[in-house]
Specification:
It is built from three helices and two strands, in the order H-E-E-H-H. It is mainly alpha-helical.
Amino acid sequence: MNNTPTWKKVLAFLIDTVGSFFIFGYAIAYFTGNINTDGFNLQGLPALFAVILIVSYFVVFNKYFGGTLGKKIFGIKNV
């Protein structure tokens, strides 16, 4: 059984979610021309594509790399 504290799991998830949101969001906004002075604004298909990339990040990293970057920072192992 995994004895990792819940706060570590939650914090790792938040780091992964926020990090992937900004990385993928800015990348898609850059290529679609949706960057503005306040950051970026994605709607419609670009927003859907960002969500697909974020979900894919979690799936691919957990399956092929033994965990996401947030999990690796906190030393959380996949069970």
